[in-house]
Amino acid sequence: MSRSEPILKVENITKSFGTAHILKGVDLELPKGGIKILIGPSGGGKSTLLQCLNCLVTPDSGTIWFNGSVVDIQKSKELYAFRQQVGMIFQDFNLFDHLTALDNIIIALCKVKKKNKQQAKERAMVELEQVGLSDKGHLYPAELSGGQKQRVAIARALAMDPKVLLLDEPTSALDPELVGEVVAVIRSLAQKGMTMIMATHQISLIRNLADEILFMKDGLIAEQGTPRELLGAGVCTLSQGFCDKLNEITGEEI
Amino acid sequence: MDDLGFFRELFTGLNRGLLMSIMLIIPSALGGLVIGITAGALRAFGNAAVVRIGDGYAALFRGTPLVVQLFVLYFGLPNVGIYLSPYWAAVTAFVLCSGAYQSEYVRGALLSIKRNQYLGAQALGFTRLQTIFWVIIPQAMRRALPGCGNEIIYLIKYSSLAYIVTFMELTGEGKTIATEYFRFTEVFLVIGFYYLILVSVAKIILRKTEKALEVPGFGSA
Ligand SMILES: Nc1ncnc2c1ncn2[C@@H]1O[C@H](COP(=O)(O)OP(=O)(O)OP(=O)(O)O)[C@@H](O)[C@H]1O
Ligand SMILES: [Mg+2]
After folding, report:
1. Closest partner residue to A142 among B122, B135, B216, by Cβ?
2. How far away is chain A from the Cα of B207, in angstroms, using its nearest Cα?
3. Could you give the CA distance from residue B3 to residue B9 in angstroms, rounded to a whole number?
4. Would you state the pLDDT for residue A235?
């Protein structure tokens, strides 16, 4: 799997906010169907890196390849087209507050993909069904639970037929009892072969889903390897130490 | 004694004035909204120069009495060769003054939309314009509506100042009759009642609009 051509690749991404150097030259390759998981201490730059990948945050320098060709992020047309193919899931969902669950999906299909209303609606229903919310389409974000909001957000991203999904702590804003439903949806995406890069503190996801774990610290990828290499019995790695700490907090078994 | 003649003249005059007031209020309210939305959007999203001009406009028209604005437009402009009829002087002043206040509500509402709404749209591939048009404005509109509605209610009441530049609307007609019969109390009580009805109608329309746009989680006052 790791031998196939990368669908998304970045080289030497740097980003500073004022005098704070947040990303200090990050390289990354995401093969088709691969799942990489970003872990590391708070403030290490995980969110910033993910947002640099689809240029929600414009990197100061670096190159982005998508499907084998360089993305010219100065050209807004090219950038918008690129973003359509890279789905993003945020910690706090970022649903459009003035639209129902169904309309959140429909508007993206109609305005960005230029589908007609009927096609968009059909597709939106299919995606809601996939995340188990076909009966909640008429509800507004304020009427949904956190877990339901996140599942709508995933449905909305998937309706755009993304080639890659960027997930930034998709379960961190959820009450513990709601984490499971979102984790289940992410797992089923992984089974279907979705290419993903995800920042998460969810031990079960880290251990069972990752092809590769990237440990980010101080704006650099400090450690990189398979879960077995980094978290196997007896190894002594940054990642191992980090996950041990997570375990102490959550009490979750590795 | 001459009550019948007085009341006949009073209501004929006031009804005529009411019509004139409505002809002032509706274009002024719509014009004020258009200016307010435009100026508010420019003040929220424009470049530094545009923002400065927009802020200057709002500061000027919110910072000076409406009477002064009316006087300048009606009595001052002829000095530079621009002659406005009483009607157009009043409408212009009301549009500019109301627009300045409306722009404040619109600007505040646009800026109150959280960054995550922009991020959500951008991540889906929305262009900047699509984001503003389909996500930011529909939300901001709902936030601005109570403030903008209030401003229209104020406008209904300050439209009475048009009589100062000799435009015969509700207050002007009433004042003429009051002076003629020297019956100020009754006349102004009736005028007050007319305005109360205008404001009540406006309130019903605003309430209906708010209801129609209501979305759970967007607390509208
Ligand atoms: N827009 C911004 N302006 C200034 N500083 C920022 C901005 N965004 C992020 N930072 C800073 O960059 C650093 C890295 O933030 P980032 O959110 O990428 O970390 P993270 O690894 O995702 O942390 P967490 O685990 O808490 O989500 C932080 O110190 C943060 O304060
Ligand atoms: Mg983060």
Report:
1. B216
2. 19
3. 10
4. 79
What are the φ/ψ torsions at residue A170 (nearest 5 degrees)?
A: -65, -15
> Are the C-beta atoms of A89 and A127 separated by less than 8 Å?
no
Whether residue B130 and residue A97 make contact (CB cut-off 8 A), yes or no, is no
Digit-coded pLDDT (tens) for A102-147: 999 999 999 999 999 999 999 999 999 999 999 999 999 999 999 9
- Quote the percentage of chain A above a pLDDT of 90: 81
- Give the residue, out of A15, A16, A17, with the most ligand 1 atoms within 8 A of its beta carbon, to mutate for a pocket test: A17
User: Counting every residue, how long is chain A?
Assistant: 254
pLDDT at A139: 96
Question: Closest by alpha carbon to B77, among B65, B95, B90?
Answer: B90
Q: How far is B99 from chain A (nearest CA, A)?
A: 26
User: How many residues does this entry show for chain B?
Assistant: 221
Q: Please give the average per-residue pLDDT across B169-195, as a whole number.
A: 94
Q: For the purposes of burial, counting CB atoms within 10 Å of the CB of B6, is it exposed (0-12), middle (13-18) or buried (19 or more)?
A: middle
Cβ neighbours, 10 Å, residue A109 = 24
State the pLDDT at residue B220: 46
Distance from CA of B50 to the nearest CA of A (A): 23
Dist CA B47 CA A76 (whole Å): 19
Q: Whose CA is closest to atom 8 on ligand 1? A: A48
Q: Is the CB of A43 under 6 A from ligand 1?
A: yes
Q: Which residue has the tokens 């047309």?
A: A77
Taking CB atoms and an 8 Å cutoff, what residues of chain A touch B142? 98
Place of tokens 């084998």: A68
**Tokens representing B36?**
């307010």
Q: A9 is written with which tokens? A: 């690749």
Domain ranges of chain B: 3-212
Q: Taking 60 as the threshold, does the pLDDT of residue A254 lie above it?
A: no
Summarised one tens digit per residue, pLDDT across range A59-96 is 999 999 999 899 999 999 999 999 999 999 999 999 99
Q: Where are the domains of chain A?
A: 1-6+30-75, 91-164+185-189, 225-254
Both structure tokens of B84: 């406005």
Q: What is the pLDDT of residue A202?
A: 87
Averaged pLDDT, A234-246: 82
Contacts of B179 (CB under 8 A, 6+ apart): none
Give whole-number Cα distances, B138 to A59, B39, B211, in Å: 31, 17, 15
Under CATH, what is the fold of the domain B3-212? Answer: MetI-like fold (1.10.3720)
- CB < 8 Å to B127, chain A: 76, 80
Interface check A159 vs B, CB under 8 A: no
Q: What is the pLDDT of residues B126-153, one digit of tens each?
A: 999 999 999 999 999 999 999 999 999 9
For B213, the closest chain A residue by CA position comes to A98
